[in-house]
Structure formats: structure tokens, C-alpha cells
Amino acid sequence: MGRPTDYTSELADAICDRLAADESLVSICRDDAMPSTTTVHRWRQERPEFRANYARAREEQGHTVADMLGDIRRMVLSGKIEPAVATAAASIAKWEAGRRAPRDFGDKLELAGDPDRPLVHKIERQIVRPANSDS
Fold first, then answer.
1. Per CATH, is 9-105 categorized as 1.10.10.60?
2. pTM score, two decimals?
3. Which of 19, 53, 107, 115 is most buried, by CB atoms within 10 Å?
4. What is the pLDDT of residues 99-119, one digit of tens each?
């Protein structure tokens, strides 16, 4: 029996659950019971409900990765991993969490100023008349 190519909600849910648990799509699709990555990408293009669930799973994956930062800290404090390795792993985890769940972990741009004088962008338009104009 070959890989599944027909869409089922059970198969789609299994893929999304594994993604949310921080398994890569490549790893999931290595499983003979799962469709190929090409099939999954086609489902994302053709099926709006799967596209929405897939996007939610990727966002949840960001939360899973962010949760791993605590594990990394505990491993450093217990001496299980070197601080330099932890720094690299934490940096990658923070980057990935920020990309997967940008509303919660992404870089934020905040403009601050005097609260009594809000930032206002004023555009003035001037009309320049030619020098030899009669008006």
C-alpha cells in the first residue's frame, strides 16, 4: 500500500497535532502512514479548512518552542548542557517562536513620546507658481 493522498480530517488533524508538538513536516511525512510533503502542501493550497488548521498548528508550535526555553535553562543550571550550547539553542528557539507566533513572541515596535503631545505626522502641500506667471 502506498502513501495516502486522499484528504481526511483524521489525517489532517494528526499532521497538525504533530506540528503543534514541534515535529517538523519533513519528519512527519517520513512516516509511511502519512502523505508526502508535496501532498500536504497541495492540501494547504486547495483546502481552506486545512490551511487554517495548519496555520494554527504552526502558531502552537511557536508556543511549544517557547516553552522549551525553560527546559534549556534548567539543563544549564543542572550542568547537563554547556552554557554556550544553551545560548545557541535558546537563540534559535526565540527566533523560531517569534516567527511561528509573532503576536505573542515576535519583535514589537513601540513608538513612545510625550503623552501630552501625541506623535502626529503632518503633511503640508504647497503650490509653487512659475516665476513668470501673471497671478
1. yes
2. 0.73
3. 19
4. 999 989 888 766 666 667 666
